[in-house]
Specification:
Number of domains: 3
GO molecular function, one term: glutathione synthase activity
Order of helices and strands: EHEEEHEEHEHEHEEHEEEEEEEHEEHHH
Enzyme class: ligase
Distance between the termini: 18 Å
CATH class of the largest domain: Alpha Beta
Shape: globular
Structural class: alpha+beta
Protein name: Glutathione synthase
Helix content: 25-40%
CATH topology of the largest domain: Rossmann fold
Oligomer: single chain
CATH architecture of the largest domain: 3-Layer(aba) Sandwich
Organism: Qipengyuania citrea
Keywords: ATP-binding, Ligase, Nucleotide-binding
Largest sheet: 6 strands, antiparallel
Length: 347
């Protein structure tokens, strides 16, 4: 199998990223891999989609750090034909480009759409990822599993929403990730509300959500594959993320801690309610952030935490994902191009 990963920049990848874990497991099986950044696509005059990519050697690397070191320092750079690859996995975070390269994420999705149209399996489906570039995508899921939400740039609207919800809520930017710019507003810091709103809306819209009391215990990150919770040998790819600081952010990149925890009935029901939308949109790999029986966020660009889940559980979740990718390549060949990219993404 020929497998390519599209990331923000190769030089900013880190050893604990899900992308690196998936790539290392694929390399150990002898698959041919390539990595390239959002700015590395090439559209030839002939219509082919190419890229300047780093092409690491296949092999059984000691750990993720060793593989990353090879990728960043020793892997040769080559001009590749993207359409020659069986699968392209889109693993970039648009929020990282918000202030420096806002053009990069939407441009890369247009190239990815062309690659899919030319026969490469692109995951997640790039046509629907275009619709999911910010958190408004979240509002398309059933109201039953979403906290009450207002999206606005007007301070008086935020204040009115908070008054409707006992003066407490969560404010965050419409475009963002990793817990960046997330504030919990209550009576203790209400006097800072205007400054918080100004900080968030400097680069766009703000989201204000009702505060869920269960959030005090953190949130549950559940990885879904083909629209449903990923499960291997009876263990779900799921962990609880909780805050280790007073700012209450549970994201691992914001200093949160992770503990292996299996989803309870309420979390499984929330995941079940989300499945039809994920499947219909071709969202192959996603991360659901669940508090109690509500989903507070859905991550479809570059869902992470898989390496933490594997290290805590000893379960080879990434190996199961590689198994599934190999299966998709076989299905595509068996159906001789009659299945759409969206169908292949979640079949």
């Amino acid at each position: 199998m020929k497998l390519a990963f599209v990331v923000n920049r190769i030089e900013t990848e880190q050893a604990d990223y899900t992308t690196i874990r998936l790539a290392r497991k694929a390399a150990a099986r002898g698959h041919e891999l390539a990595f390239f950044g959002l700015a590395d696509f090439i559209y030839e005059s002939s219509g082919r989609i190419c890229a300047m990519a780093s092409v690491p050697e296949p092999g059984d690397y000691a750990d993720d750090a060793a593989y990353l070191d090879h990728l960043q320092n020793d892997a040769p750079e080559k001009r590749i034909v993207v359409e020659d690859y069986d699968i392209v996995m889109l693993r970039s975070d648009p929020a990282d480009e918000l202030t420096t390269r806002p053009w990069a994420p939407p441009s890369s999705l247009l190239f990815a759409q062309l690659a899919a149209a030319h026969g490469t399996i692109v995951l997640n489906d790039p046509s629907h990822l275009t619709d999911a570039q910010n958190k408004t995508y979240f509002q398309h899921f059933p109201e039953e599993v979403r906290p009450a939400t207002c999206i606005t740039r007007h301070a008086d609207e935020v204040s009115a929403f908070l008054e409707e919800h006992d003066g407490k809520g969560v404010l965050k930017p419409l475009q963002g990730s990793g817990g960046q710019g997330v504030f919990i507003v209550d009576k203790k810091n209400r006097q800072n509300l205007n400054q918080i709103i100004e900080s968030i809306t400097r680069d766009g819209y703000a989201i204000v959500q009702e505060y869920l009391p269960a959030a005090a215990e953190g949130d549950l990150r559940v990885i879904t594959l083909n629209g449903r919770p990923l499960q291997v040998d009876g263990t779900f790819a799921s962990l609880r993320r909780s805050s280790t600081t007073e700012d209450h952010r549970s994201n691992l990149s914001a200093g949160g801690k992770a503990d292996l925890e299996q989803p309870d009935e309420a979390a499984m029901r929330a995941a079940e309610m989300c499945a039809p939308k994920l499947i219909d949109d071709g969202m192959y790999l996603a991360g659901l952030d669940i508090v109690g029986d509500r989903m507070i966020e859905v991550n479809v660009d570059s869902p992470g935490a898989l390496s933490y889940m594997e290290d805590l559980s000893g379960v080879d979740f990434s190996g199961a994902i590689i198994d599934d990718l190999e299966r998709k390549v076989r299905l595509k060949k068996n159906y001789s191009g009659t299945l759409s990219n969206r169908h292949l993404a979640v079949v």
